[in-house]
Amino acid sequence: MTFKFDSHFYAMIDTAAGHEPVALAQLYLEAGARVMQLRMKNASARDILAAARVIAELNRRRGATFIVNDRVDLAILSGADGVHLGQDDLPIEAARKLIESKMIIGISTHSVEQARAAEASGADYIGFGPMYPGGLKENASGKGLAMLQEVRAAVRIPIVAIGGITEARVPEVLTAGANAAAIITDVIRAPDIAAKVRSILAIS
Question: Can you give the pTM of this predicted structure?
Answer without folding.
Answer: 0.95
